[in-house]
Amino acid sequence: MFRTMIVAGLLTSAGMGTAFAHVSLETQEAPVDSTYKAIFRVPHGCDGKATTAVRIKIPEGVIDVKPMPKAGWKLETVKGKYAKPYSLWGETVSEGVTEVNWNGGNLPDEFYDEFVLRARLTGDLPAGETLRFPVVQECEGGGTARWIEIPAAGQDEDALEHPAPGLKLLPKK
Fold first, then answer.
1. What is the pLDDT of residues 74-107, one digit of tens each?
2. What DSSP assignment string belongs to 1-31?
3. CA distances to 28, 30, 48, 90 from 169, in Å
4. DSSP type of residue 157
5. What CA–CA distance (Å, rounded) separates 82 from 85?
6. What torsion do the CA atoms of 82, 146, 27, 58 make, to the nearest 10 degrees?
7. Residue 133's closest CA among 107, 169, 158, 95?
């Protein structure tokens, strides 16, 4: 019995190690037509090297993006046209932030940090589905981890080596 508990505990720990080994969102579900605070957790560098940049692609239907500055990091945003116009507080918007980049910092491999932005999840997003935020993590010496894989319909995210962080969309409140 005791041996079975130890084996089960080791298997659970091994599974948790892989689940937390990639860039992820702290809050992994939110209702559509709401404001969402996205906290991207970066748990390690690239092959032992420090993280020096984090770039996040903003998916369609996520608007009014405002990233939080980080001491010691340069913050840049890329703006572009949306696929369609959206309503934001009674006004129509057709362009905005499509990518957020923090760079020039130094996050050693043995440390963990968070990168934060606030955004509006439009009411047009499909409740019940998972919205993906592709992330590219750059490290010293030119190393890169591309957390950009999006599971195909019916595919388990755990089958992916570098899954993009996902946000399950809940019905509007």
1. 999 999 999 999 999 999 999 999 999 999 999 9
2. -HHHHHHHHHHHHHHHHHHTSS-EESS-EEE
3. 9, 5, 34, 23
4. G
5. 7
6. -10
7. 169
Of residues 144, 39, 52, the one with CA closest to residue 107: 52
The conformation of residue 156, written as its DSSP 8-state character, comes to -
pLDDT, tens only, 124-170 = 999 999 999 999 999 999 999 999 999 998 898 888 999 999 999 99
Distance CA 25, CA 165 (A): 6
Radius of gyration in angstroms for the set of CA atoms belonging to the chain, rounded to a whole number:
18
Residue owning tokens 């996040």: 56
Q: Has this prediction a pTM greater than 0.70?
A: yes
DSSP string over 80-98: EEEEEEEEETTEEEEEEEE
